[in-house]
Design brief:
Protein name: Major facilitator superfamily domain-containing protein
CATH superfamily: MFS general substrate transporter like domains
InterPro entries: MFS, MFS_dom, MFS_trans_sf
Strand order of the largest sheet: 1-2
Number of strands: 2
Main location: membrane
Helix content: over 70%
Subcellular location: Cell membrane; Membrane
Keywords: Cell membrane, Membrane, Transmembrane, Transmembrane helix
CATH topology: Growth Hormone, Chain: A
Number of domains: 1
Structural class: mainly alpha
Length: 510
């Protein structure tokens, strides 16, 4: 294997008692595999003491995040889940107040009115390209801390923006900062949660990405109507500031690679000081390589590309629907600014039901397959996706034609329930699959690749909504999207059959 060649997760691993980090990864972390920790040098060019040399077994080491007390491990996930929730509330909580923004900043173009959502999602697309790789080099904790502070500052910039251009700039920057939690959350999960429990805890992680965009407009509608659109961003900034307190008190570095690097540096002591020029050159080389890592995964890993493409289309389709809700429910059904947010309840109910079902069933299916086959593999996360993904196109047809035929307002909302349910059963299995495949070693970059592709779709597909609906109408416009969704349905079935072969035959040189 070349120095940076990554073979995907050990598909023959049994689940053992709490064996979350794969044995292959643990060995490479401490015994000189392809991991960067093994290349840290102590004084005089000697390798730093490994767990074998200093009498410690990393698998049983108290510094190993897998061995932390449950309360400490679970606190990492819960805090990250709330960070994700606020970041995703920010995406759409402002939407009901967009018409107030149009009045305040004196513009009337409907396409421009979709920019506040699209530009934020574009920030979500670009942020992971920087923050996820940096987290694998310098640790997850510094990136969480930096981006949380920046996120609050940029939200305040949106709240006090004097014109549209300033608002758009701060909206984009807040998306970039909010993207860090999207990409790092899977790595944190892989660091502290054993593989056989990840489905349940991934439900916590995805509550933000799933429910934030749907419940955001419900709250945002009332805030915008009674306090004004600027207060949407002030409230989000206040909530983020409050979350900083438990974050500072409870969040810790969880990356095994970074923990061991810090330990090696402490053991090396003052004699570790070498040529500054060499150190800077090495750091620059690592940063450059890390930043292109998500792109390499998209280009050279079939499993990352095709599954991320499916998630991207589904994500973009959902945000395209969001852009039509104000027209349908305010224009056609006469909802007010406050009550228009209630039109998102269907999506929220579908997503919440999907998250609960996925959280309960995913780990059970994994354990059932291990009992039957004597081993587990990442593809065991995909059966729910294969069976439930068709609910997405069903929801698109239902929503589109019930709105086009002016049926009772509850009918398009029910259609949104099926869309939300289908989206969860597409996105959530893919996230757990990527975490299980890449584990702690490169899961942040794998999820960053996924986030980049889906965020680009979420940014640009809604821009096509006004013209598409004007040309095709709500019925055929949503049917077109439904037919495209049907074309994606075979993907999880293909990966159930050929996924392991593709993983093993396409290692990525990172």
């Amino acid at each position: 294997m070349s120095e940076h060649e990554l073979h995907y997760g050990d598909s023959s691993l049994g689940l053992g008692e709490g064996g979350g980090q794969s044995e292959a990864l643990q060995r490479s972390d401490v015994r000189g595999g392809d991991n960067e920790v093994s290349r840290v040098r102590a004084p005089g060019g000697r390798p730093p003491p490994t767990s074998q040399q200093d009498g410690l077994d990393w698998l049983n080491d108290p510094q190993n995040p897998m061995n932390w007390p449950r309360s400490k491990r679970y606190a990492q996930i819960i805090i990250v889940a709330f960070i994700l929730l606020i970041a995703n509330l920010t995406a759409t909580m402002f939407v009901p107040g967009s018409r107030q923004l149009m009045v305040d900043f004196e513009f009337s173009d409907e396409t421009v009115a979709t920019l506040p959502v699209s530009i934020f999602i574009l920030g979500l697309a670009l942020g992971p390209l920087i923050f996820a790789p940096l987290s694998e080099l310098y640790g997850r904790l510094p990136v969480y801390a930096l981006t949380s502070a920046l996120f609050i500052a940029f939200l305040l910039g949106c709240a006090f923006a004097p014109n549209l251009a300033t608002f758009i700039v701060f909206r984009f920057l807040s998306g970039c900062a909010g993207a860090a939690s999207q990409a790092l959350s899977g790595g944190t999960l892989a660091d502290v949660i054993p593989r056989e429990q990840r489905g349940k805890w991934m439900a916590w992680i995805v509550l933000g990405p799933m429910l934030g965009p749907s419940i955001g407009p419900i709250a945002g509608g009332f805030v915008a109507q009674y306090l004004g659109w600027r207060w949407v961003f002030r409230i989000l900034a206040i909530a983020s500031g409050v979350l900083l307190v438990p974050g500072v008190l409870l969040l810790r570095e969880t990356s095994p690679k970074i923990i061991m690097r810090h330990r090696a540096s402490r053991l090396a002591g003052a004699a570790e000081k070498t040529s500054a020029a060499v150190g800077k050159a090495e750091a620059s080389r690592k940063i450059a390589r890390a930043i292109v890592r998500p792109v390499r995964l998209l280009l050279f890993s079939p499993i990352v590309f095709f599954l991320s493409l499916y998630v991207a289309f589904s994500f973009g389709l959902m945000f395209l629907l969001f852009s039509s809700f104000s027209t349908v429910f305010q224009g056609q059904y006469g909802f007010s600014t406050a009550t228009s947010g209630l039109s998102y309840i269907g999506l929220g109910v579908g997503m919440f039901a999907g998250v609960l079902a996925q959280g309960v069933l995913s780990d059970k299916i994994l354990k059932s397959r291990e009992r039957r086959n004597g081993r587990t593999k990442p593809e065991d996360r995909l059966p729910l996706m294969a069976y439930m993904a068709p609910t997405l196109p069903v929801g698109m047809f239902w929503y589109g034609w019930s709105a086009a035929k002016h049926l009772h307002w509850i009918m398009p909302i029910i259609g949104g329930t099926f869309v939300g349910l289908g989206f969860v059963f597409i996105m959530m299995p893919v996230m757990v699959y990527l975490v299980d495949t890449f584990d702690s070693e490169a899961s942040a970059s794998a999820l960053a690749a996924n986030t980049v592709l889906r965020s680009f779709a979420g940014a640009f597909l809604p821009l096509a909504a006004p013209r598409m609906y004007a040309t095709l109408g709500l019925g055929w416009g949503n049917s077109l999207l439904g037919f495209i969704a049907i074309a994606f349905v075979p993907i999880p079935w293909i990966f159930l059959v050929y996924g392991e072969r593709l993983r093993l035959s396409h290692p990525v040189n990172l």
